Amino acid sequence: MEAQFRDYINEVRGDGRTVLLSSHILGEVEALCDRVSIIRDGAVVESGTMAQLRHLARTTVSAEMASVPEGLADLPGVHDVVVQGQRITASVEAKGMAQLMAALGSGGVTAVTSQPPTLEELFLRHYRKAQP
Fold it and tell me: What is the rounded CA–CA span in Å between residue 88 and residue 103?
């Protein structure tokens, strides 16, 4: 049934029509929607494409290194650096990505993965803020 639903939504979008989808199934929203609005207490608190909304949260970067460069935690926009042997993980703001990639390149990257924030992470940001 889910596959048929997705096919229908994509068919309607392909015809140039707009579909308003209200759902708590965030993976489905992320997969189907061109634009997303986060609503809290009946008001839109954030709206845009996933790319536009991702500025609100950090990207997670993991890398396997030949040698781990010094000072990664001191780079602007780089946070939560964890070094385990030759593997590093960090959360990175968009403004810090270029410097982090340059620093990792100097240490001989053997593998790297970059995971942008999910819609769930973006959504939870707004709901965690107001908790007492």
Answer: 12
